[in-house]
Amino acid sequence: MIFVLILSIISIIVLASTTEETITRNYCQLPDAVFADGVSAADFGTTGWNYANAENWEQLVVTCGGSYQSPIDIVTTVANQEPIQPQIHYKNKASDVAYEEANKPYTKEYEGEYSEIEVTDASGLVVRYYAKQFHIHTPSEHTIDGKYFDLEIHFVHQAIQDEEQDCNKVKNSLTVFGLMFTEQAYATDYEVFKPWFDQNVTGEVESFDLNDFFQKMTDTTYYHYNGSLTTLPCSQIVNWIVFYQPLPISTNQLNLFRTAFADSTVFPLKRNNRPIQHLNGRKILKGTALTTGVTEIPDVQSSYAYLLLSTIVMSAFIL
Ligand SMILES: [Zn+2]
């Protein structure tokens, strides 16, 4: 009996250790930057690219002068109805997966081993992505009918490279969701933003689920177009999905972001948003997303939990 119990405990330890293995994720590659003549690298800062010289980025990287650049002004009256109704549902967010603060000098960003998501691009092709990072801009980068919002979050997803998905057939290696935020003086502070500003909180967030933001929306109307990165190297590889309904953000947290971008030599007026780019004939589609928001538990986690439970039950019988 004791032997059976010991065997069970060993098997649990073995299983528990396998769940902690580092997950390797393979992404479809992004194109290399095409630097302008005489420029070999362009880092963020007073001598590189910054928000004071945003009108001249194409003098550093040629792509920034391309005709499919972002952000854009979304004119809602010219958007055509999208023939699909996509779901926003991040799969397999394990409770022990953390999001770590990334040290980017031009934004506030979390990176992590995020969940998988399927996204339909503007041509109707379904592409599988990993949610890779999210970061913020203030004020917003996109405008809707000419209107700026106080803050915009970008959820960046990069296409998955594996046996089932051919990267050569993926037009946009990235899908980025843009979510708008409007100041509401006494809105509840978002827990997920606190590690960026509170020295007493570690730079990791464990309890946050990417589905959370979408569940707060009562209207999931979005606008969809082909565009680019809004920071260097401005690569024109982004399937953009910009949500219409802004979420609230407290005056307190909005001010924390603005204070983070206080260096006026690189952030004029405490802004880290690129100016609006020309649409150049691109089509804008309009749709409504389904946000089921149900996060599945990974198989390995549930089987571990099942084994633990069955071992406890079995041990009770044996002893
Ligand atoms: Zn961004």
From TrEMBL:
Q: Which GO terms describe its molecular function?
A: carbonate dehydratase activity; zinc ion binding
Signal peptide (from-to): 1-16
Co-factor(s): Zn(2+)
Pfam families documented for this protein: Carb_anhydrase (PF00194)
Name a single GO biological process. one-carbon metabolic process
Q: Does the keyword Lyase apply?
A: yes
User: What is the reaction catalyzed?
Assistant: hydrogencarbonate + H(+) = CO2 + H2O
Q: Read off the InterPro entries from this record.
A: CA_dom, Carbonic_anhydrase_a-class, Carbonic_anhydrase_a-class_CS
Keywords assigned = Lyase, Metal-binding, Signal, Zinc
Q: What is its EC number?
A: 4.2.1.1
Record domain Alpha-carbonic anhydrase: where: 47-288
Role summary: Reversible hydration of carbon dioxide.
State the similarity comment.
Belongs to the alpha-carbonic anhydrase family.
State the protein's name: Carbonic anhydrase
